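Before surveying the methods themselves, we first show a specimen of the format, giving the amino acid sequence and backbone structure tokens:

:::
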Amino acid sequence: MEVPVPLILALPVLLTTCWFYTAYLSRTSFQHIRNKRICLLIAHPDDEAMFFSPTLLALTAPELGNHVKILCLSTGNADGLGDTRQRELLDSASLLGLQNPPSDVFIINSPDFPDSMTKSWSASSISNVLSSAFVTLSPSPVPNTTTVSTSRATGKANGVTSRKAADSKGTPPVATIDILLTFDGHGVSGHTNHVSLYQGARAWLSGLMAEKAGWGCPVDLYTLSSTNIIRKYMSMADAPFTLFWGVLRDALNDARGQKLGKRSQSPRKLFFVSDWTQWRRAQRAMTDGHRSQMRWFRWGWIGVGRYMVVNDLRREIIK
């Protein structure tokens, strides 16, 4: 059976219309993140562009008043290009909306975090780095404390500030960020280092909440949803699917909870769809920013990769 030519010609128009409309809905119909201190936790320079560009382009919009930082736990030195890739990350961050990359991008260079497809990173080492970067002492002095620091420059943990359990129960957990973004437990691409970030982020927040029964976690952890391989390469065609498959359902549940007075201040899911201009900026973050990484398969990724256009992130429950 022959497919009518007008139908074939109409498909690109229909796809483009659905994409633009979904991008419009993502900006106008979902709860926005405003006036927050946000950190994106990544494993390698280029993760921010290849996987999180829709999120960064949305959250760095000046009218939202957010302060976005990037913490990268390796220099990506697997091919001996660590110094080059560090500079490229700063260029990419600027293209993706960070206002002052030299002061808002932190890169760890430590043997604890080798750029490797086969070596996992210790959750406790990641937790120590996060504690060093984002945990401060309570304003009220507490006796019998042990204070130790972690170097951002090397990522080597010299220790963590701790209190006696008896004292900690009476004080709320504190942090210098409000939101932490990273990969989910599948790491999107299955990369071992990506998966380690998820485990380390959860370990950090679980430690932050230890002996803090009755207090809410001061940091919301959002993880980037992994998809199957077909959806991974559907580019903008996955936007309406993502919207109606999961995000809209969760949004309705949140709205229902709000009517019952049960809604959290933090949205259950974050949903970002880039429009044409944002998609081109994300591509430039790779082609102009991460030039050393532009091998043949990455040209394919920036053309048809779903994560260059669509991000949906789920808020993790930390107990």
In short: The first helix runs from residue 5 to 28. The two ends are 57 Å apart (CA to CA).
